[in-house]
C-alpha cells in the first residue's frame, strides 16, 4: 500500500494517500486530507445551512466528481462526518467546496454548525469519496432527493447542465413543507440553461404542508408521487431511464423497490444513502479479502479499520474485545484479520465502495474470520 507523504498542514495527524495507478475509476482518484477554513455559513432554510470551506492554498487540490462526498472534522467533535459536495466542481473556485448541512437535533457536528458564528473556524476535510456520479448514457435522468440529499443531486444536475447532456431530466424533491424548500431559483436557472433540445423538470413534493395553504404543487411522499403520476402513467419508462437517489435511507429503499418492481435493472439505479451513526457498521469477510489495501487507503479515521487478533465475543456473538496488531508484532494478515471497529467507524461506507472484491458489507457475519487457520 502506498501511504505517501505526511501532510504537515494537517493538525489532526492524518495522511495524504495516493492510490495506485492505473486510475481505474473515480474511486481510485487521489484521496487527500486537507485543512480548511469555514469561509461562509448561510441559512438555506430554518434548519439547513450552506457552508463553504476554503482549503489552504499550499495543500494539494481536492478534485471531486459531481456526486461524490467528503468527510469533515470540526473542532470539539472527535470523529468526522460525511457530507456530499453540493455544487458541480467546475462551478466552484478550485480550492473551495460547498456543502448543505441539515441540523439533526442532538447531532454533534450539525449542532456545532448551527450553534454560533463558525466563519473562520478551522476544519479538516478528507476526500473525494464515493462513486455516485453522472453516467454517460443518453437515457432520461430520474433524480429523487429528500432533505439534504439535495446536495449531491444539485451537483449532478449542475454538471449535466454544464455539459449540455442530450437527455431529459426529471428531478423530484421531497420536503415536508414550503419552509423546507430551497434552491428554487437555482432550479429555474438550470431549467433555462438546460440543453434546449431537451427538458429539465424540477418537481418539489410536500408531505406535511397544511391543507389550507397556498401550495398548489404536488403533495404526499415523493416516491409515491413519482410512481403514481409518472411511472404508472407512462410519462417515463423503465426502458429509457437512469435513476439517481440521494438522501434518507428509507426514502431510497422505497424508491429503489418501486423501480425494481417495475422492471428497472439494478445497473440503471444509482444511489447515495445518507447513513448516520444509527446505521450498522460494515463488516469485513476476511475469506474474500485479497489484501489489496484499497479500503485502508480511503478510510477517513485512523482506527476504524485495523489489523487485529485475539477476538473475544459476548453472549450475542458480537466482538467485545480484540488486540490490535502493530507492525512489530504482526504474524501476517493471513493469520490475523482486517477488522472494522464499530466504535470508531463513522458509517461513511467508503471502504464498502472501495473494496473491489465485495469483501465488506453490513450484511456479513460479525465474527472475524482469518484467511487461514492457525495449525
Ligand atoms: C455518504 C454520505 C453523505 C452525506 N451527506 C450529507 C449532506 O450532504 N448533508 C447532510 O446534512 N448530511 C449528510 N450526511 C449525514 C451526515 O454524515 C451526518 O450523519 C449528519 O449530519 C448527522 O451528524 P451529527 O454529527 O449532527 O449527528 P450525530 O452526532 O452523528 O448523531 C447524533 C444523534 O442523532 C441521531 N441522528 C443522526 N442522524 C439523524 C437523522 N438524519 N435523523 C434523525 N436522527 C438522527 C442519532 O441517533 C444520534 O444518536 C451524509 C452521510 C453519508 C453517509
Ligand atoms: S470502517 Fe469503512 S465505513 Fe467505517 S469509517 Fe472506516 S471507511 Fe468508513
Ligand atoms: S477488504 Fe477489500 S479493499 Fe480491503 S484489503 Fe481486503 S480486498 Fe482489499
Give a verbal description of the structure:
Residues about 1-30 have low confidence and may be disordered. Helix 4 (about 220-230) packs parallel to helix 5. This protein has about 375 residues and is α+β, with helices and mostly antiparallel strands. It has seven helices and 18 strands. It folds into three domains: about 5-130, Elongation Factor Tu (Ef-tu), domain 3 (Beta Barrel), CATH 2.40.30.10; about 140-275, Rossmann fold; about 285-360, Alpha-Beta Plaits (2-Layer Sandwich). The strands form five sheets. It has a six-stranded antiparallel beta sheet. A five-stranded parallel beta sheet has the order 11-10-9-12-13, with helices on both faces. The longest helix has 13 residues, at about 150-160. Helix content is about 15%, strand content about 30%. The site of one iron/sulfur cluster (SF4) has 15 residues, from helix 7.
Global outline: globular
Helix content range = 10-25%
Instruction: Describe the largest sheet.
Output: 6 strands, antiparallel
Distance between the termini: 28 Å
Give me the CATH fold name of the largest domain: Rossmann fold
Please give the radius of gyration in angstroms: 22 Å
Q: Find the CATH superfamily of the largest domain.
A: Nucleotide-binding domain of ferredoxin-NADP reductase (FNR) module
Total domain modules: 3
Counting DSSP H or I runs of 4 or more residues, the number of helices is 7
Structural class: alpha+beta
Low-confidence region ranges: 1-29
N-to-C series of helices and strands = EEEEEEEHEEHEHEHEHEEHEEEHE
Provide the list of bound ligands, each named once.
flavin-adenine dinucleotide, iron/sulfur cluster
Quote the average pLDDT.
Answer: 87
Amino acid at each position: 500500500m502506498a501511504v505517501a507523504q505526511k501532510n504537515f498542514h494537517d493538525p489532526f495527524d492524518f495522511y495524504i494517500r495516493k492510490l495506485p495507478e492505473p486510475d481505474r475509476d473515480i474511486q481510485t482518484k487521489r484521496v487527500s486530507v486537507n485543512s480548511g477554513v469555514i469561509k461562509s455559513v448561510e441559512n438555506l432554510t430554518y434548519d439547513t445551512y450552506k457552508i463553504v470551506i476554503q482549503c489552504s492554498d499550499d495543500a494539494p487540490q481536492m478534485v471531486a466528481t459531481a456526486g461524490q462526498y467528503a468527510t469533515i472534522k470540526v473542532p470539539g467533535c472527535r470523529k468526522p462526518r460525511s457530507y456530499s459536495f453540493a455544487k458541480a466542481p467546475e462551478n466552484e473556485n478550485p480550492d473551495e467546496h460547498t456543502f448543505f448541512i441539515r441540523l439533526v437535533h442532538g447531532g454533534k457536528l450539525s449542532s456545532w454548525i448551527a450553534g454560533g458564528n463558525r466563519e473562520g473556524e478551522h476544519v479538516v476535510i478528507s476526500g473525494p469519496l464515493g462513486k455516485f456520479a453522472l453516467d454517460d448514457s443518453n437515457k432520461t435522468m430520474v433524480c429523487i432527493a429528500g432533505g439534504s440529499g439535495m446536495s449531491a443531486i444539485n451537483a449532478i444536475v449542475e454538471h449535466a447542465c454544464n455539459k449540455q447532456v442530450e437527455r431529459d431530466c426529471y428531478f423530484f424533491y421531497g420536503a415536508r413543507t414550503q419552509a423546507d424548500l430551497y434552491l428554487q431559483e437555482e432550479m429555474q436557472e438550470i431549467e433555462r440553461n438546460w440543453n434546449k433540445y431537451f427538458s429539465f423538470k424540477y418537481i418539489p413534493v410536500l408531505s406535511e404542508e397544511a391543507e389550507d395553504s397556498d401550495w398548489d404543487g404536488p403533495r404526499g411522499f415523493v416516491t409515491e408521487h413519482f410512481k403514481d403520476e409518472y411511472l404508472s402513467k407512462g410519462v417515463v419508462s423503465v426502458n429509457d431511464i437512469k435513476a439517481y437517489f440521494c438522501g434518507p435511507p428509507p426514502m431510497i429503499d422505497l424508491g429503489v423497490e418501486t423501480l425494481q418492481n417495475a422492471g428497472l435493472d439494478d445497473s440503471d439505479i444509482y444511489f447515495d444513502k445518507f447513513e448516520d451513526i444509527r446505521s450498522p457498521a460494515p463488516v469485513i469477510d476476511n475469506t474474500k479479502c485479497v489484501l489489496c489495501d484499497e479500503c485502508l487507503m480511503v478510510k477517513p479515521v485512523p482506527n476504524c479499520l485495523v489489523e487485529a487478533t485475539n477476538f473475544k465475543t459476548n453472549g450475542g456473538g458480537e466482538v467485545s474485545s480484540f488486540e490490535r496488531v502493530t507492525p512489530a508484532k504482526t504474524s501476517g494478515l493471513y493469520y490475523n484479520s482486517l477488522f472494522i471497529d464499530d466504535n470508531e467507524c463513522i458509517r461513511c461506507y467508503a471502504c464498502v465502495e472501495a473494496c473491489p472484491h465485495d469483501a465488506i458489507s453490513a450484511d456479513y457475519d460479525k465474527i472475524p474470520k482469518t484467511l487461514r487457520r492457525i495449525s
